[in-house]
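idk why but the lab printer keeps eating my pages so im just putting this in chat instead. protein + S-adenosyl-L-homocysteine:
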Amino acid sequence: MLHIDILTVHPDLLIGPFDHSILKRAQQKQIVEVEIHNIRDYTTDKHHSTDDYQFGGGAGMVMMIEPIDNCLKHLKTKRVFDEVIYMTPDGERLNQQISNQLSMKGNIVILCGHYKGVDERVREHFITREISIGDYVLSGGELPAAVLIDSIVRLVPGVLGDETSALFDSFQDNLLAPPVYTRPEIYNDWKVPEILLSGHFKNIEDWRYNEAIERTKRRRPDLLNE
Ligand code: SAH
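predcted complex ->
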């Protein structure tokens, strides 16, 4: 069982992504559990502030350490965490290998930033891993967290119906996935490659492998040198 706790100031942004398709089924099958925590519930002042002006001046608010600490302290009384992750554009860039590693963990916390990000002391003292989903800046860590979680959850054994299907996705084995087709066999004169209709399993497998190599050479030659 993989348990994921998400810390956010915008829980609403996270409700949609976990309520559909594979992520929903994984939770129904009790293979994965996702819990969303509103950092605002862990504030102690009367305005329930989660952010404040930055020291030294400058535009943009910074998320305060205390509510985050309170929330983490509370969660640590329930679970021992393998990783406390902060979504941030200056973290290590997410790839399939990182998702593979995280899919084998038991308990993960994911902290979503907002505004200018979190007080640096949060990162120094509570965070064990920092992950970016790419070299661009979003306004909050919620969408990045959903991207990370989707990529992890589909790799947890038992989540995908066909156990082997994740193994043939792009980036497993440093290869892009081969093309796929479904009915009809002919549409507007455009035919499905003959070999896929042949029923000859070995030839189909070879064809797919060659297509994967060709596609990788053409689109992502960098992957072949890794
Ligand atoms: N001032 C920060 C950006 C803050 S963006 C900087 O320049 O680095 C606000 C929040 O959105 C961040 O705290 C982070 O949680 C999230 N975020 C934005 N872009 C992201 C990305 N590419 N990957 C992961 N998280 C991101």
